[in-house]
Design brief:
It is a single chain. It contains seven helices and no strands. It is mainly alpha-helical. Helix 2 runs parallel beside helix 4 and helix 4 packs antiparallel against helix 5 (105-135).
Amino acid sequence: MLDARMRRLIDPPLTGAGLWLARLGVSANAVTLAGLALGLLMAAMLAAGFGALALVPLVFSRLCDGLDGAVARARGATDFGGYLDIFCDFVFYGAVPLAFVLRDPAANGVAGAFLLACFYVNGTSFLGYAVLAGKRGLETREQGEKSLYYSAGLLEGTETILFFALLCLLPGAFAPLAFVFGVLCCATALSRVLMARRRFR
């Protein structure tokens, strides 16, 4: 819901930084993998009980997630780069609920399982829509240039980052926050299914 607005704010500085990194010979895939490593570090810190401190790798991880596209545009985007980017995003998203389950299985087990299931449902709706949209030659640029069709929804990347930041600040509230966010994920998935029904019939 917020991604299109955020892109207008962050794209100009990211484009400049991406050009600079490209001139240094840094590849987009290297930036993508660095972002994943930082995201997994954030999850490990959450599992170990470092709540607010986990905000640091979260910020730099998501910075890398924006920079990899800018570097790719400067050096020449590839299909594999787009694939690696979405793969790493989903690995990172799944690692955060798992971190809270590992931290306290008794208190967070059910909520973590629910949130992971909702991420799975939402991710499937996103990727399935992208496959059919690509098959029909559809394009989207509201969220910036993407390697695959990006269908907007109630929850997008910006909302997910804000949710993870809130979890870092309020780790003791993981269970109620996870249930609320999970329900919103399912609402987003349902809206995509209805949108697909209208567009792909």
